[in-house]
């Protein structure tokens, strides 16, 4: 069995997810600290990236909410 097949059964609890988020935030701040041009973009580019990145999780969340309403 490959690692990809084993990942199908992986379940992360809330603490794991929290630490992943903190790690991603820290890595992002680290990259921004080392690479100044990333912070020189206009504010709306960050907003566009934020909206685009939020579309899929929001769709998944609303589908999950709708499935609970139908039970």
Overview of the molecule:
With 71 residues, the protein is mostly helical. The chain has two domains: 11-40; 41-71, no CATH class. It has three helices and no strands. It has helices spanning 3-7, 14-34, 43-69. The chain is extended and about 50 Å long. The termini are far apart.
Q: TL;DR of this structure?
A:
The chain has about 70 residues and is mainly alpha-helical. It has helices at about 5, 15-35, 45-70.
- The rough form would be described as extended
Radius of gyration, whole Å: 17 Å
What portion of residues is helical? over 70%
- Largest sheet geometry: none
Tally of alpha and pi helices: 3
- Reading the helices and strands in chain order gives HHH
Through-space gap between termini: 35 Å
Q: How many separate domains?
A: 2
* Content-based structural category: mainly alpha
Quote the beta fraction: under 5%
* Number of beta-strand segments: 0
Which residues sit in consecutive blocks of at least 5 with pLDDT less than 50?
none
What would the average pLDDT be, to the nearest integer? 85
């Amino acid at each position: 069995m490959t690692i990809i097949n084993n990942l199908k059964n992986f379940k992360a609890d809330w603490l794991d997810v929290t630490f992943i988020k903190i790690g991603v935030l820290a890595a992002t701040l680290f990259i921004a600290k080392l690479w100044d041009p990333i912070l020189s973009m206009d504010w709306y580019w960050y907003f566009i990236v934020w909206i685009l990145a939020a579309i899929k999780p929001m769709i998944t969340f609303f589908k999950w909410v709708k499935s609970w309403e139908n039970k």
